[in-house]
Specification:
The complex is a heterotrimer of chains A (768), B (361) and C (322).
Chain A lengths: L20 H6 L4 H20 L2 H18 L1 H4 L10 H4 L6 E6 L17 E4 L4 E7 L4 E9 L8 E10 L6 E5 L5 E6 L2 E6 L5 E6 L23 E6 L3 E7 L13 E7 H8 L8 E3 L7 E7 L3 E8 L15 E6 H8 L25 E7 L5 E7 L5 E6 L7 E7 L5 E6 L4 E6 L13 E4 L3 E8 L4 E6 L3 E6 L4 E6 L8 E4 L2 E4 L3 E2 L2 E8 L2 E7 L10 E2 L5 E2 L10 H37 L1 H16 L2 H12 L3 H10 L2 H16 L2 H8 L4 H40 L7 H11 L6 H29 L1 H4 L2
Antiparallel strand pairs in A: 1-32, 2-3, 3-4, 4-5, 6-7, 7-8, 8-9, 10-11, 11-12, 13-14, 14-15, 15-16, 17-18, 18-19, 20-21, 21-22, 22-23, 24-25, 25-26, 26-27, 28-29, 30-31, 31-32, 33-34
Helix pairs in contact in A: 2-16, 3-8, 3-16, 8-9, 8-11, 8-12, 8-14, 9-12, 10-11, 10-14, 11-14, 12-14, 13-14, 14-15, 14-16, 15-16
Chain B lengths: L6 E12 L2 E13 L4 E5 L6 H8 L7 E10 L2 E2 L15 H6 L4 E4 L13 H10 L5 H4 L2 H6 L7 H15 L16 H13 L5 E5 L7 H18 L2 E6 L2 H7 L2 E6 L2 E7 H6 L4 H8 L8 H7 L28 H5 L4 E5 L2 E4 L1 H7 L6
Parallel strand pairs in B: 3-8, 3-9, 6-7, 7-8
Antiparallel strand pairs in B: 1-2, 1-4, 4-5, 9-10, 10-12, 11-12
Chain C lengths: L3 H31 L4 H4 L8 H11 L5 H13 L13 H36 L4 H14 L3 H15 L16 H35 L2 H8 L4 H19 L1 H19 L4 H10 L3 H29 L1 H5 L2
Chain lengths: 768, 361, 322
């Protein structure tokens, strides 16, 4: 340490202290000395750093965020999974009431009977009647008034009446689109009851007990040339079709039901060598003149069989009763895809869907789901033996499809689950691609139960989750409303005009949830507008949402706080990895030189030149969405800049005396790099690490926004992505602004710290 | 000289404003340069030599404040162009007209004084074209002969002048269209000299012109400068921290310490009869190959310590912390100039006292 | 006068760019091979493709061949710009790209050019007049924009200028064909200005820093001493030299701007290559995804090449020594 002090220009004094480390490094390492050296250089650095106002600002912002992250559970007003209570999510003018409609008029012991879930009849615009019925031969009819149209106070029960119906009825449905009558089943007997008074208008024995009644009550219920409505029934042993002429003057008097064709399963199995295992569906009646095609899933494939309803007994295409019109085996579908790795189709398909009614005549599309993310759509062109298959898929490995539901607008609604979360997507059956925002929508915190329904009047999809949450989606699959269903009892269906709405009726802003508890109808009716996302403020429940809520009623401020944790972890870990990688590459490249240097630097150049985000997206698609992968991706694409700088620094250090001395004294290359060069480039490594944190935070947000984020993690990017897919970007600035501002501020903080630190490390910058 | 000096700097005060206060870079500086004369300015680095020189044409950063004094050039006070609050409008039209046309600077070639992205010739041309009024003065007989009867554009005059300049500084004319990085260190320096001479200025400031060059090149260049200066009878101010080198070049010398003048005198007077302890120290630090071993040991002592920072410099005489003759008076009062001989001023209480016949105690 | 050094420099850069391109293509090939779903699963996703066609296509694209052979075919197809047929749209990818490339080039190219020109001018000015109010506010604004996530600014702008003020349409491309230029400008203004602001921030900050360093150089003092006017000193000397480091950083800016363009195409539903890329990636449309990725990388690489060549002219030192 002799003679080096102050031999420079006096004018430059105070700009850069002479580097004492060089000479000290030569002496035997002593932890105490190292410690004091570190302390000295730290306090020297801090003295310089303090002079930068921007640096102090950055440090302050950073500490605020760190504070937020560490103390999130204490600062946050709510839990992370908190959802605003119902009274907050609806506007103040709404009425939220639970009606206990105990109308067991004249019944001695209603509790002794088994009461079935409510059945509703809905008129053009509103719910008009709700019926509950028992196996003891009683039906209770409630005439209700849905006043939502007049801006009123939700559902009200106007009157109720008790009716006697046949005993042991298990199914009671209003049939055909005029709601002229109810169709009911009791064992092997099918009844037709008048709509107003439940008088048995017709009674027919089916000779077997039907289990499946699929597509019977459809608005597009098949009709033959005589105006007869057709019904198909099935159980494990028999497929049957019957027809009825409606009371239309053009067709004469009401006629008793009669069967045209009955195929027993034994016949079918004998003829075709396979066994029917699922619910049959009726397809394309108009095509098969004077007959009906029923598609059934069997153990080995999908079969279409022919039932004739022509009273003259004429046949088309010379197909015998019960003979298959066409048959596609699962084996064939697998062969069509020609790959072992394609998931085998399970023996029993999860669902078979009927195609959109406006589909050109002659196409039958059957959708089969596998246990993986794949759905197969089998398109059978009638009149030919050709068929083709479409693979309906999602680029995400999760979630697993659970059900496929046709809608009246040409889409298939596919529901899926990861076990914890419920997902829904709208799929184009033609191409198999997911419509809308090209992604599954994680709409719920629980799997979706049953079938989502489409409501014409409001153009909504509506479904319920295992957590009794009722979710209403817009046609674009964006969240419109959600609320908690009334608890307990048996939730099933309210039906109207032949369509089935799960658990809830909705019209003009009214939402109902109904349940039968013994003989009592409980109606939860809510009217008004669903208002979430809520702007900041204090709400009915007394809760204050400082930054408002998201579309589920989750508190934005809480999410913002918890997300800070993830952001800091992502930024820090990614930066450490990338700075470490860059330093190693830079040191090796700079120290060894030659071809090692050439190769490494070319590689570095490529990484610097690449449109990083574009390739990162591909990598994200390969690796799948998780926080770990995102960290990895950020690290992979940000080490190059660090490597360049460290290499330059290594080159200049390499020729200094202390390295020569170490080399001469016989230190190995590894020792020189680790013990002598490494500590000297460390400040630069740290500097670029700080800059990388800043970049990592932004990159994470962008990846999340583009749908490559981890759906289970709370990050600012995911908050914004959820905003985008919920369709509230342009209407909820309180949701749009905070995450973006937080990203900007945290990124800015690290950038400012980096710049100030840069001035400490590079004295040249300070001279200004 | 009756008609006054070519350049007369009187009591010039120029301070830089910084975050912590004021840097008193030029403090009550007084000196003058006569026509055809070379003034050598010496002192350690950071003593304000260059700043003083640049202050003449107000080549100062924005935080510079001229707080007092005058700079009379050819009888005109250049401090007239300074704003009322002492700040400087660096691109003032009036001062720009004087720059290079009348006062030019020989910069240090090794320090990137030439813009690396332009051809050297173009950079000289730029200087000439900035002062088109002076162009006719550059036309000589040879030029008239060469372009007799032709319409001559201004650029052609400039080009002709540059070729001439290259001849003067012994540079090959082919080099005009080369870039600075294609020049060697010595060539760069010659080009800068050529540039400084471009408009035949009356006064040239040579700012450490040979500091970064090797001894032989440096010697050649200095000889060149001296020859040219004598040929054209130009006045010069030569700045260097190397007192011996300046001595060869200059008629008179000024020694600066910590933003102030310590002593000015004719070169011979300065060497024979240095009065200021700092000057003596500087002279004693010149290595010599003559004399006995003891003498050499005695002479090569140098001055202990280093110049003070110019933010809050020492009160009184700024040299007092390093001065072995320091007395209480030196700590309290700034010395007044004492005329110890003809044209020989010393800013030192000791010299002042001795000059007046008092003993220094 | 032929400047061989310059030619050697340019040729060297071209070769280097080509090698980079090959490496990028190789990496993307490997990545596409690693995707969870394979092209074979998706080949017949389009019901219009019959099994016989599928077999034909399997043979055509060589999916029955070993990976290395496929790799060679992939490289050949990419380098000859033969991108095949989109799995999801059933049309030639080249046709899809043909109408989208000019749009993205317009968005990306305009943004890069505008942000560089404006950024250099503003950066030069505030660097020159450092310490003033203009400097402070420009630096603060730039710092903020520099640290904002691109899509977020896009959303904010959409919210303010399209939704609240109604100055610009919500769609980023005119609906009706033929497109009139003023409609195109009106529709693309928001994404363009967003991308410009994003790239501008970095350029301004860099140019300002570079200016501050350049102003300290001695040749600036020389220029001032020569008595030339302020404008000449600022633009001819200070700004001109300060552009050099900024031009070097152009490489990173280009990649950055391209990322921004892809994100903003998504935000503004701008029907360009970037949107097609994300669409095709999420729907696993392999030919389209690999073609768009290639085109995006190519745009950046060619941009870099231009910048490198321009740099050769900007900095005379390059022409002599590599």
């Amino acid at each position: 340490m002799s003679g080096t002090k102050n031999d420079g220009m006096p004018g430059a004094a105070g700009m850069m202290e002479p580097d004492e480390e060089e000479t000290e490094l030569l002496t035997v390492p002593n932890w105490k000395r190292t410690l004091s050296r570190w302390r000295r250089s730290f306090s020297r650095g801090w003295k310089l750093y303090k002079q930068s106002k921007a640096g102090l600002t950055g440090l302050t912002i950073m500490f605020i965020f760190v504070f937020m992250a560490v103390f999130a559970p204490w600062i946050a007003p709510y839990d992370l999974d908190f959802l605003a209570p119902q009274e907050d999510v609806f506007l103040a003018d709404n009425v939220h009431e639970v009606i206990e409609a105990n109308a067991t008029l004249g019944l001695d012991d209603p509790a002794s009977e088994l009461w079935y879930p409510p059945v509703g009849y809905r008129g053009d615009q509103r719910l008009e009647e709700v019926i509950i019925y028992s196996d003891g031969g009683h039906a209770l009819k409630f005439v209700v008034d849905d006043k939502a149209i007049e801006g009123g106070r939700g559902l009200q029960i106007l009157s109720n009446s008790t009716h006697v119906i046949p005993q042991n009825i298990t199914i009671l449905l209003p049939t055909t689109f005029r709601n002229e009558h109810f169709t009911a089943f009791a064992g092997d007997t099918m009844y037709e009851l008048t709509f107003d008074t439940f008088i048995v208008r017709a009674e027919v024995s089916l000779d077997f007990e039907p289990i499946w009644y699929s597509n019977l009550w459809n608005r597009w219920s098949p009709q033959n040339s005589e105006g007869e409505y057709l019904h198909s029934f099935a159980n494990e042993t028999t497929l049957a079709m019957c027809a009825r002429i409606p009371p239309n003057p053009a067709y004469g008097e009401f006629r008793e039901k009669r069967f045209y064709d009955i195929v027993t399963m034994d016949d079918f199995n004998e003829t075709n060598g396979t066994t029917i295992i699922g619910e049959p569906i009726i397809l394309n009646i108009p095509l098969v003149e004077n007959g009906s095609m029923i598609v059934v899933p069997t153990t080995e494939g999908i079969a279409a069989i022919y039932l004739d309803y022509n009273k003259t007994g004429g046949r088309v295409r010379n197909v015998a009763i019960g003979e298959m019109l066409w048959y596609v085996t699962y084996e064939e579908i697998r062969d069509f895809w020609d790959r072992d790795s394609v998931e085998p189709i399970p023996n029993r398909p999860i669902s078979i869907a009927k195609e959109h009614p406006s589909e050109p005549i002659g196409k039958d599309r059957i959708i089969l789901a596998t246990d993986s993310q794949f759905l197969y759509s089998v398109l059978r062109i009638n009149g030919t033996n050709n068929w083709t298959s479409t693979l309906v898929t999602s680029s995400m490995r999760e979630p697993r499809p659970m059900g496929i539901w046709p809608t009246f607008r040409g889409n298939l609604v596919v529901t899926g689950t990861t076990g914890e979360l419920g997902f829904i997507a709208s799929v184009d059956p033609e191409t198999g691609s997911i419509r809308g925002n090209r992604t599954w929508y994680n709409m719920t915190g629980a799997p979706i139960v049953g079938r989502p329904d489409y409501i014409f009047s409001s153009r909504n999809y509506i479904f319920m989750t295992e957590a009794q949450q009722i979710v209403i989606l817009k046609e674009t699959m964006q969240l419109d409303a959600t609320f908690q269903a009334v608890g307990g009892g048996t939730h099933t269906t309210i039906s109207y005009v032949g369509n089935i709405v799960n658990n809830v009726g909705s019209a003009q802003g009214n939402y109902y949830s109904m349940v039968t508890v013994d003989a009592v109808l409980w109606v939860q009716s809510v009217s008004g507008t669903y208002t979430a996302p809520l702007p900041p403020g204090v709400y009915t429940s007394g809760n204050r949402y400082i930054l408002g809520t998201d579309v589920f009623g989750g508190d934005i401020f809480t999410q913002l706080l918890y997300a800070t944790r993830t952001e800091l972890v992502v930024g820090l870990v990614a930066a450490v990895i990338s700075a470490g990688l860059g330093t190693i590459v830079g040191l090796i490249s700079g120290y060894y030189g030659g071809w090692v240097d050439t190769i490494l630097m070319r590689l570095t150049d490529i990484f610097l030149t690449l449109p990083i985000l574009v390739v990162a997206l591909l990598l994200a698609a390969v690796l799948g969405p998780s926080i770990g992968n995102i960290i990895l991706i950020i690290a992979i694409f940000s080490w190059a800049g660090v490597a360049r700088v460290i290499r330059a620094q290594t080159l200049s250090l390499k020729n200094r005396a202390f390295i020569d001395a170490a080399r001469v004294s016989g230190a190995s290359n590894r020792t020189i790099i680790l013990r002598h060069l490494g500590p000297n480039v460390l400040p630069l490594t740290f500097l670029y690490m700080v800059f990388t944190i800043s970049a990592a935070i932004i990159t994470e947000a962008i990846l999340a926004f583009l749908g490559m984020g981890d759906p289970t993690a709370t990050t600012w990017g995911m908050m914004l992505q959820f905003l985008q897919i919920s369709g509230n970007t342009l209407t909820a600035p309180w949701w749009l602004l905070p995450p973006g501002l937080a990203i900007t501020l945290l990124s800015l903080a690290f950038y400012l710290i980096g710049r100030a630190f840069d001035e400490v490390v590079n004295p040249r910058l300070r001279a200004r | 000289m009756n008609m006054g000096h070519l350049l007369e700097v009187n009591d010039l005060v120029m301070h830089f404003k910084i975050q912590d206060g004021w840097v008193e870079a030029v403090d009550h500086v007084t000196f003058h340069v006569d026509e055809g004369e070379t003034l050598g300015v010496v002192g350690e680095s950071g003593c304000g030599k260059t700043t003083t020189a640049y202050a003449i044409t107000q080549l100062l950063p924005r935080n510079a404040f001229i707080k007092g004094g005058s700079i009379k050039f050819k009888g005109k006070d250049l401090t007239e162009f300074v704003n009322d609050d002492g700040t400087i409008d660096i691109f003032n039209q009036a001062i720009r007209d004087i720059r290079w046309d009348q006062i030019s600077i020989i910069f240090q070639g090794a320090m990137d004084a030439l813009n690396p992205v332009y051809r050297v010739g173009d950079q000289i041309e730029e200087a000439i074209m900035a002062h088109t009024d002076s162009l006719p003065g550059l036309i000589d007989d040879e030029f008239r002969e060469k372009f007799a009867g032709m319409r001559v554009e201004e650029r052609e005059i400039a080009r002709y002048r540059i070729e001439k300049l290259y001849d003067i500084v012994n540079l090959n004319r082919d080099r005009i269209d080369h870039y600075p990085h294609e020049y060697s260190g010595g060539m760069k320096q010659r080009a800068l000299i050529a540039m400084a001479l471009a408009l035949r200025p009356d006064f040239i400031i040579a700012d450490e012109p040979t500091t970064a060059l090797d001894v032989i090149t440096s010697y050649k260049i200095l000889k060149e400068i001296k020859r040219i200066q004598e040929e054209h009878n130009q006045s010069m101010m030569m700045i260097s921290h190397d007192i011996s080198r300046v001595a060869e070049m200059s008629n008179r010398m000024a020694v600066m310490y910590a933003g102030r003048i310590a002593e000015t005198a004719r070169t011979t007077d300065l060497f024979c009869d240095a009065q200021h302890p700092y000057t003596i120290g500087l002279i004693n630090s010149i290595p010599t190959i003559l004399g006995t071993k003891e003498e050499m040991k005695d002479r090569l002592k140098g001055i202990p310590g280093s110049p003070p920072p110019l933010v809050n410099p020492p009160k009184g005489c700024r040299f007092h912390p390093r001065c072995k003759y320091m007395k209480d008076k030196c700590k309290k009062y700034s010395p007044k100039p004492a005329e110890v001989g003809p044209d020989h001023l010393v800013w030192c209480w000791k010299a002042d006292a001795e000059n007046r016949g008092h003993e220094w105690k | 006068m032929v400047n061989w050094n310059l030619i050697r420099y340019i040729v060297g850069r071209i070769i280097q760019t080509f090698i980079t391109l090959l490496i990028i293509l190789t990496v993307t090939f490997i990545l596409f091979e690693m995707l969870p779903a394979t092209p074979i699963d998706l080949l017949s996703q389009n019901p219009l493709i019959k099994p016989s066609q599928k077999e034909y296509m399997i043979e055509l694209f060589g999916f029955d061949r070993p990976p290395f052979e496929r790799y060679l075919i992939y490289m050949r197809n990419m380098l000859t710009f033969d991108f095949g047929i989109s799995y999801t749209q059933g049309v030639s990818v080249n046709d899809l790209l043909a109408e989208r490339i000019p749009r993205t080039l317009f968005l990306f190219g305009m943004a890069v050019v505008i942000s560089y020109v404006v950024g250099i001018l503003v950066g030069a000015y505030i660097g020159w007049r450092r310490g003033g109010i203009a400097d402070g506010s420009a630096v603060l604004t730039s710092l903020l924009f520099y640290n904002m996530p691109s899509f977020w600014i896009g959303l904010i702008f959409l919210f303010i200028f399209s939704f609240q003020l109604g100055w610009f349409p919500l769609t980023a491309w005119p609906q009706v064909y033929p497109y009139r230029w003023w409609e195109v400008v009106h529709h693309t203004f928001l994404p363009l200005i967003t991308l410009v602001l994003l790239s501008l921030a970095g350029t301004i900050l860099l140019m300002r820093t570079s200016m501050l360093e350049t102003i300290g150089e001695n040749y600036i003092l020389t220029a001032v001493a020569k008595g030339i006017p302020e404008r000449s000193v600022l633009f001819k000397h200070a700004a001109r030299n300060a552009t050099l480091p900024v031009a070097t950083a152009f490489v990173i800016s280009l990649a950055f701007a391209m990322g921004g363009a892809v994100v903003l195409e998504q935000v503004f539903s701008f029907p360009g290559v970037g949107l097609l890329y994300i669409d095709s990636l999420t729907s696993l449309d392999f030919p389209t995804a690999s073609a768009t990725l290639y085109i995006l990388a190519l745009m950046v690489l060619i941009g870099n090449l231009f910048a490198d060549i321009l740099y050769g002219f900007l900095d005379p030192r390059i022409r002599v020594t590599e």
